[in-house]
Inverse folding.
């Protein structure tokens, strides 16, 4: 179960049963505009936290500070007790964070299996090795991952010709290759048909629960959010305006105001 | 022991040897004598088209008169595109595939040097027609290489002789930035200082070949307020330099000594804007009335309906000197040809000339005169022929310049 | 002194004008069509020649005759641009990035011979412009009025372009297409018409640039290549697609020339490239350029699947190698010489392919490493008295070290910017070899770099070259399919995803750059001993272009493409050079035909055919529009 904490609460929260991801007082401005303003939350192992908010609420900025693409102006990101604030994406990955992109990002000149093998090779620290055939490395492990996402039958196809929903599954498998503690998913169901969305998120939830992976995802589709998240946090204008279970958030007046545009928008605690 | 096909095959298979054999046996003595001619035909067409025509004229005359050694002479032309490495490839191909008896040609100095080194390595004769680099016969000279045209040193020396007579003390120089330009400047400065110790060089401009920024270059020279200018640029660089210099008054009240500018290749494109009063080396083709030249010029005009350029003379003379060498050697054997060429006297369109035994440089000379404009065209006036033999250092000096002996 | 500074500034501004006209056309064409138009210098040259003919015919003394001739020449060159676009380029817009460069280079070659055949070899000094024949006194110096006119032309054309881009629908489309290509498709614009009109306009500007040189410069056959490299520099320094940037850069280059002459009279040529290198290192997208929206890697299809050789391909490779290995037993000496050269070029092409194919880093200056390998060998022989064997070992390291230094800067850029930075470094290397006469012998080169006696025969040297080159190519090939090669391909396919799975994209690309430089150095060292001499031409632009052509012709998306491309291109040009004096036309024409017939390169096309025949069209990857983000 994920909870949202104030900074003072977080300070005392590091113990054996600590959350996988702890975010404290994250802040980022662009040209004087605060895109993210004092956001704190945490995600626990095996749970799914949805990050929602209207366009321009600061979701992507927030996300990019977690995955290393942006350096926060202020605040701290802690993964399993170790600070990862402001380190590069590839270092974030090495710390045990897997990630999927809003627009699928795969290697088009490789087969589905090779995409996974590439991630496994990198996880094993062998990317600088000029020896051996990459195709022969971690083949079983790659097939096992593909099996988890139901893509084993398409392992030898080119990534460039897959259906969109299948690409998303491949990405999920890639993101799982480094046995992550945390999975960051940016709009994981964007561009998918409704049925595919449900399937993908159910699959994700299943894997997360089975492997004890904490999942943080942004999402537009409220059905997906309310069906698959263990808890939800809501951003508006860079500030965190609500948190709780899907049910709680759904009835939160601040959230309703933001989404339905009924007046009071300057929410918060 | 070196590995080559012969001993490899001896151990391998007699059958294969038989297949390869025909290429190992050199046809000798019956067919035409073959000359492999390598030049930058596509890269330097302005000089080399007339060159090839002059060559073909000589070839036609020689073959009409029975050829050499009772055999016809044949030429295999190759274009190096201005790249020495391609010239070397052609050289290898000409020797091995075409079985030529000797090599000739070369316009750019580095192409000439590359072929010369190849000739030394392969013990094949190379008669360099045009490359002006002094290194070709001196610093990098070798037994198998001879050169027809008066070198950079010789042409600079001819101009220095005239320049030293001028009252000018402050000189500026402009030359294309490559070996020819640099050597021309080096010799001009060295020889002029020797002849007239009080001269001083106040500015040097080395625009990239073919890329002169003429306005800025003229301005930079003007700023040094020289009494006289030594120019080595040619071709389009020269045209641009002259036009900007004329407009900006650079040449007014100043004498210019200029390499090659009297050659029709470079003077004619200037038309009515040709500079006046420059001291130049060149070729006043319409006015040379010596019998050899009149004969050459008439034959050339009859064959090509165009007047000869200096390139025509170089092509014509190179071919004739090769024929003379063949006749003297009595053989196409390279070593015999080399020995024949040492001290060989041959007829040129400018009169008799000789390949010097001491450094393999021919004594072919050049015309030195002043430029003028006549009927809207640039011409040379007050010209005289300067015999190349008189503009070379003494033999003992040459020997120190030429390590190969 | 102050007078001189002012006058030189004006001189620089005058030179900048024509440069700007040509560069702005090049920039607009690149912006909209993403075509690196190598033939743009040829269009400039044609503008000058056609203007010369027209003006001579109309009567140069008459103002209408002169200016009418100039304008008409520009329009005619615009039409020639349209012909090139419609007949050739339109057919290959979907080809991989830079492939169109191959076609435009074919056009360059054809136009060189056509110009020679039409106008003859002699330079043409054009008439002076009516009304601008004389000079005015400025700062105590005579200054030609025509140069003043040219100074005004630059800003005038810039203004016209600005109005055109801001105030017309066509201009809006051009700007939109330059910023984001997909957008134009989305707007439902007739793309064909837009591209053709852009080509007309760009070519016309080049033609105008050439025609306006008439009163200033002798029209000659070297104008095309003299202009094109400088125009590229201007476009890149200014920022691709930015016309204002091109103007600023043209002025920068023009003024640099004028003052370079005063301060460093011997290095004016390389000064330009030094400045470009500095600008690109400081501002990776040029002075006024912006990081491109979406994918900057051209509009070509996404990278197709790369599979290791199947048995049939392997068999073909083995047969090829066996033929090469057995060739000396039957082939006469001159064929051996040709084969030796082809084998060396195959390695040279394969080395470029390594960074350009799997690495996605096209290089316009790969000859630098080939040349440095050759010079490494020659310098070891000349200055250290080394025999061939240690010289061959030492030489590639010189190239590799240059790869370490140059590569470090280059991998920070991408696309055409990266390619142009490699060109800048190559020109700097070239200028060093050219200018440092005491060590390198200058343009006369270093002679007497012959092999050891055991390898002196054609037979032995062929085997030496074949063994070293085949082993190096095989090593490159194995590397492509090793984890390193996969990581390199990953970095090319999707840098964002690569970083997200722990791949250090820049470091991987840097390593690839160094490997490619080292391998090119091996080829260069062999070439030095093969030719017996080295010259600055080994690292000059034409040699870099050759390598690029070999890779593109063979097919950049395949591993064996560069080898086939090297044999096809070098073999073809060699045979044509022997067969005809008009080899440039025939070679150019052949390139254009091959490009149209095989838009994926020779090997790419045959693989595609093979896959179709086997009924597995998917593996050969139908063109899928790349949707990758970043870069």
């Amino acid at each position: 179960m994920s909870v949202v904490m104030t900074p003072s609460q977080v300070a005392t929260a590091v113990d054996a049963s600590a959350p996988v991801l702890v975010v404290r007082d994250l802040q980022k401005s662009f040209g004087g505009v605060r895109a993210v303003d004092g956001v704190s939350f945490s995600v626990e192992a095996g749970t799914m936290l949805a990050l929602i908010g209207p366009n321009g609420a600061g979701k992507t900025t927030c996300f990019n500070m977690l995955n290393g693409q942006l350096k926060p102006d202020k605040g701290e990101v802690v993964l399993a007790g170790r600070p990862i604030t402001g380190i590069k994406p590839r270092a974030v990955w090495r710390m045990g964070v897997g990630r999927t992109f809003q627009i699928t990002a795969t290697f088009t000149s490789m087969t589905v299996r090779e995409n996974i093998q590439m991630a496994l090779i990198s996880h094993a620290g062998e990317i600088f090795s000029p020896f051996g055939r990459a195709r022969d490395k971690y083949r079983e492990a790659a097939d096992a991952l593909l099996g988890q996402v139901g893509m084993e039958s398409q392992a030898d196809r080119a990534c460039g010709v897959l259906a969109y929903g299948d690409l998303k599954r491949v990405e999920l498998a890639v993101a799982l290759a480094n046995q992550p503690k945390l999975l960051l998913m940016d709009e994981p169901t964007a561009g998918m048909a409704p049925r595919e969305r449900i399937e993908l998120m159910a699959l994700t939830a299943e894997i997360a629960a089975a492997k004890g992976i904490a999942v943080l995802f942004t999402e537009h589709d409220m059905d997906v959010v309310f069906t698959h998240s263990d808890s939800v946090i809501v951003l508006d204008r860079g500030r965190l305006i609500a948190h709780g279970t899907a049910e709680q958030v759904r009835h939160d007046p601040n959230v309703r105001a933001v989404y339905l545009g009924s007046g009071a928008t300057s929410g918060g605690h | 022991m070196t590995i080559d096909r012969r001993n490899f095959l001896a151990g391998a298979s007699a059958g294969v040897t038989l297949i390869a054999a025909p290429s190992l046996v050199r046809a000798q003595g019956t067919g035409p004598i073959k000359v492999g001619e390598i030049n930058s035909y596509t890269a330097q067409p302005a000089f080399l088209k007339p060159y090839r025509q002059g060559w073909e004229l000589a070839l036609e005359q020689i073959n009409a008169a029975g050829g050499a050694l009772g055999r016809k002479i044949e030429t295999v032309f190759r274009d190096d595109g201005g790249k020495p490495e391609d010239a070397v490839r052609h050289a290898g191909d000409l020797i091995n595939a075409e079985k030529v008896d000797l090599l000739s040609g070369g316009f750019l100095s580095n192409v000439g040097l590359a072929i010369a080194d190849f000739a030394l390595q392969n013990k094949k004769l190379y008669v360099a027609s045009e490359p002006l680099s002094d290194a070709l016969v001196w610093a990098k000279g070798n037994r198998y290489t001879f050169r027809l045209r008066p070198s950079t040193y010789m042409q600079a020396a001819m101009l220095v002789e005239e320049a030293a007579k001028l009252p000018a003390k402050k000189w500026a120089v402009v030359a294309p930035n490559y070996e020819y330009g640099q050597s021309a400047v080096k010799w001009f400065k060295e020889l002029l200082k020797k002849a007239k110790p009080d001269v001083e060089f106040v500015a040097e401009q080395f625009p990239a070949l073919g890329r002169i920024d003429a306005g800025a270059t003229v301005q930079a020279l003007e700023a040094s307020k020289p009494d006289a200018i030594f120019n080595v640029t040619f071709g389009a660089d020269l045209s641009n330099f002259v036009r900007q210099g004329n407009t900006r008054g650079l040449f007014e009240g100043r004498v210019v000594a200029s390499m090659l500018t009297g050659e029709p290749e470079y003077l004619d494109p200037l038309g009515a804007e040709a500079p006046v009063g420059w001291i130049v080396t060149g070729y006043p083709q319409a006015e040379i009335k010596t019998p050899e030249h009149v004969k050459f010029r008439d034959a050339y005009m009859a064959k090509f309906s165009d007047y000869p350029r200096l390139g025509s003379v170089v092509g014509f003379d190179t071919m004739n000197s090769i024929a003379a060498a063949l006749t003297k050697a009595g053989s196409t054997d390279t070593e015999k040809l080399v020995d024949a060429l040492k001290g060989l006297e041959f007829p040129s369109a400018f009169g008799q000339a000789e390949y010097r035994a001491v450094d393999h440089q021919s004594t072919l000379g050049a015309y030195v005169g002043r430029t003028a404009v006549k009927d809207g065209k640039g011409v040379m006036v007050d010209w005289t022929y300067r015999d190349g033999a008189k503009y070379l250092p003494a033999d003992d000096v040459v020997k120190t310049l030429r390590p190969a002996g | 002194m102050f007078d001189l500074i002012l006058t030189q500034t004006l001189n620089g501004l005058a030179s900048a004008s024509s440069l700007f006209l040509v560069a702005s056309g090049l920039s607009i064409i690149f912006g909209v069509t993403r075509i690196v138009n190598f033939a743009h210098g040829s269009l400039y040259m044609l503008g000058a020649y056609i203007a010369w003919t027209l003006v001579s015919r109309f009567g140069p003394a008459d103002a209408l005759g002169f200016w009418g001739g100039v304008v008409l020449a520009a329009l005619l060159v615009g039409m020639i641009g349209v012909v090139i676009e419609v007949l050739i380029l339109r057919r290959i817009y979907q080809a991989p990035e830079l492939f169109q460069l191959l076609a435009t280079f074919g056009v360059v070659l054809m136009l060189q011979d056509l110009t020679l055949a039409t106008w003859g070899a002699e330079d043409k000094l054009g008439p002076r412009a009516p009304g601008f024949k004389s000079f005015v006194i400025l700062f105590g110096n005579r200054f030609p009025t025509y140069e003043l006119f040219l100074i005004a032309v630059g800003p005038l054309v810039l203004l016209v372009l600005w109005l055109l881009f801001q105030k017309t629908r066509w201009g809006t489309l051009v700007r939109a297409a330059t910023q984001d290509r997909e957008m134009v498709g989305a707007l439902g614009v007739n793309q064909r018409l837009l591209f053709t009109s852009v080509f007309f306009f760009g070519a016309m500007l080049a033609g105008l640039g050439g025609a306006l040189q008439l009163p200033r410069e002798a029209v000659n056959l070297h104008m095309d290549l003299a202009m094109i490299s400088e125009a590229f520099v201007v476009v890149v320094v200014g920022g691709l697609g930015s016309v204002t940037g091109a103007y600023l850069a043209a002025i920068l280059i023009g003024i640099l020339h004028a003052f370079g002459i005063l301060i460093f009279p011997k290095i004016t040529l390389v000064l330009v490239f030094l400045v470009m290198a500095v600008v690109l290192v400081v501002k990776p997208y040029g002075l006024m350029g912006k990081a491109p929206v979406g994918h900057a890697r051209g509009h070509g299809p996404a990278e197709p699947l790369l599979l290791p050789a199947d048995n049939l391909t392997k068999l073909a490779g083995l047969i090829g190698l066996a033929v090469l290995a057995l060739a000396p037993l039957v082939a006469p000496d001159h064929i051996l010489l040709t084969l030796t050269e082809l084998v060396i070029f195959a390695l040279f092409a394969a080395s470029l392919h390594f960074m350009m194919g799997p690495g996605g880093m096209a290089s316009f200056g790969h000859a630098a490493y080939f040349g440095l390998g050759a010079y490494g060998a020659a310098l070891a022989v000349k200055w250290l008295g080394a025999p061939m064997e240690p010289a061959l070992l030492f030489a590639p390291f010189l190239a590799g070290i240059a790869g370490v230094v140059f590569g470090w800067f280059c991998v920070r850029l991408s696309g055409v910017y990266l390619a142009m930075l490699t060109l800048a470094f190559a020109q700097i290397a070239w200028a060093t070899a050219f200018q440092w006469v005491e060590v390198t012998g200058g343009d006369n080169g270093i002679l007497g770099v012959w092999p050891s006696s055991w390898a002196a025969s054609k037979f032995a040297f062929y085997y030496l070259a074949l063994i070293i080159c085949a082993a190096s190519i095989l090593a490159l090939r194995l590397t492509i399919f090793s984890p390193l090669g996969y990581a390199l391909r990953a970095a090319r396919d999707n840098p964002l995803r690569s970083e997200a799975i722990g791949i250090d994209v820049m470091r991987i690309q840097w390593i690839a750059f160094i490997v490619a430089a080292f391998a090119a150095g091996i080829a260069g060292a062999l070439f030095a001993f093969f030719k017996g001499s080295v010259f600055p031409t080994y690292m000059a632009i034409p040699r870099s272009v050759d390598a690029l052509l070999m890779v593109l012709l063979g097919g950049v998306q395949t591993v064996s493409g560069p080898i086939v491309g090297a044999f096809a291109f070098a073999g073809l040009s060699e045979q044509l050079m022997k067969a005809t004096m008009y080899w440039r036309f025939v070679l150019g024409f052949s390139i254009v035909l091959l490009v149209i017939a095989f838009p994926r390169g020779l090997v790419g096309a045959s693989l595609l055919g093979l896959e179709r025949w086997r009924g597995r069209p998917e593996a050969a990857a139908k063109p899928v529009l790349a949707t990758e983000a970043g870069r």
Notes: Residues 108-179 of chain A form one domain. Chain A has two domains: 20-96+180-269, 108-179. The CA atoms of residues 14 and 81 of chain A lie 7 Å apart.
